[in-house]
Amino acid sequence: MDYLLAAFAWLADSSHWTGRSGIPNRLLQHLAVTSVVVSIAAVIALPIGILIGHTHRGSGVVGAIVGAARSIPTLGLLTLFGLGLGIGLRAPILALVVLAMPSLLAGAYAGIETVKPEVTDAARAIGLSEWQIVSRVEIPLSAPVIIGGIRSATLQVVSTATLAAYIADAGLGRFLFTGLKTRDYAQMVGGAIMVITLALILELILAGIQRLARRISHPQLLTTTMKRN
Amino acid sequence: MKWLSQNWEHVIGLMVNHLLLAIPAIVMSVIIAVPLGRLAQQKPWLGKPLLSFATLMYAVPSLPLLVIIPSVLGLPLRSSATMIVALTLYGVALMVRTAADGFASIDQGTHEAAIAIGHSRRSLFWKVNLPLAIPVLASGVRVVVVSTIALVTIGALLGQSSLGTLLTDGFQRGIVAEVLTGVVLTIVLAVLLDLLVVLAKNLLAPWVRSGRAAV
Amino acid sequence: MLKKLSIVMSVIVLAGVSALTGCTSNPDPSKPTIVIGSQGYYSSEIIAEIYAQALEKAGYAVDRQFRIGPREVYLPEIEAGRIDLFPEYSGPLLQYWQPGTTARLGDDVYAQLQQATPPGLRVLDQSAATDQDSYVVTQAFANQWGLVAVSDLAKVTTPLILGASSNALDRPNGPNGLLSVYGIEVGFTPIEDSGGPLTVKALKDGDIQLAIIYTANPSITANNLITLEDNKGLFLASHIVPLASDNVDEQAASIINAVSAAMGPGDLIGMNARSVNDQLPAQTIARDWLTEKGLI
Fold first, then answer.
1. CB distance C74–B15 less than 8 Å?
2. Would you say the ipTM is above 0.90?
3. Which of A110, C104, C153, C264 has its CA 20 to 30 A from that of B189?
């Protein structure tokens, strides 16, 4: 418990809140890395996941890939990319994009797959094109699950983005590494508290968006009956 | 390949260490998460905060956790117990929601019919609810298995020997083959253990064959 | 389900463990088992492996606990008596126990280290081999500004960025020490690979101009890097010195002292090069060196 008290004392020290390596700047960097990573990963993973969910093809293969991809050690990936790309943010961003993909992909295809065939068949019967079925029927109906995927990906990236500080002068991870290596555990735990706080805020925002999406896509259902995510 | 041919004995040793850390953590995660999930599903007033706490737990960065756990439990910084406790915390955090979903997925009619034919509370859990929840629980176990196997590597930063050692050592010496070996074998271990879970699920719940990946 | 699974897995694991432990030479039961540790640094592992093989040759049973992260992690374990023998570096070890020490030269550091070592532990003879932090620049940069010694950095008019592990931030040889001892102001970029390939790459890419790299790191010569002479004594001498517990008896101590006496600075660089360039495992490098020196 001493560590926690010391960490709060560290956080309360106003000198840690200014300058290039102050808490606000590190927090912004962390947030920027997280949003860039989740955006890139979403642009790649969501269309693929939606396509698979819509065509019902390749979900077995993707299921296997998603499972295996979850087991890729981010530290290893970061090292490999670092050896190739050098210091700075490129290697960590690339490694984190790989980390974020499985949750996004799984959210997208599982979401689309859960749309009942009767619904899509009805849409087809009234003359909607395949593209219209995807964009006007399937995506809106599965939005809560897709957002659930974005939510878990974001959470993973926020906590793992601390590893970026292994080879870049960026993010809240700096407090963790500096604290570890200089035996300043108050700084280390203080940094961790900031990471958790950021995760909590993002989690609340995304949960709110998810609830909103659920209310729009399934207005007839009570929100409590939707257990998924 | 030259590197691997000279070091395969060392690599096998690290693989064993990796499993010795991961498997106890996976087993403990499941043993703790299943009853917690059951509790969360039965008592929503307790379940809601419990599930939110689990989500936040998952957001705790692993490095500080590995430093805080020893200070709280009075363990040395480098001990397999520290690593296993940390991995278990993450595993429980990952699994508890799926466990709650698993019990929620049981048809209410089946549940009531089981009570009607005279199951006690205890046998209701062991003979009806738990087996029926197995398909969903298994999907949760699979996620815990693969992510735990991957997380073990972080311990290398604190001197905890595992396949992660190949990552840090290969990095220092600039041997790409060594880092690659670490990455690939971690994935192989995860896939093999994952297959074992699927196999076990098919044995224990033969009525469902097609598993859908958990989100 | 879990029970079955865990039984299956424990069988696999046990099979693996027994396959691994079947390969030790026959130790003398009257001698203590010596637990040897090493840092999470390949060079430290090679030296620890040399200690281990030399002791095994004399009939000691050895328990290898290698690649234990940073000093913060392993030193408490040595102090608690869980590790008996550890290849250390005299300067950084002294600084761990006495952060404010003013000793810089090899013999002063060793003398103070003997004083600072807590009861129950002792340092054996120090070796001539050193592996110490040093400031390194690329050859092109050295030529451009005419750099030989650290004080020459004052001639550089463009901004200087130092790349090193974040522990340099609170050590005397980090940006603070550079400012207070040499009056030179530098920016700092943390790279956590302890002067490894990423640091070298960052130097060559021009992301940093100055790096802290260990003197026995073979990448210095491999990449034509220039080590700046520390003319004002910012860096502590850092000889290889074995840290031993009381469990290391007289005979074991004399074996290790013989190893330290035989090891020169060139030996260490040569062995590190075999590790990095030839990618050989520590066991092979240690065995070859001990054979060459006639120690086993």
1. no
2. no
3. A110
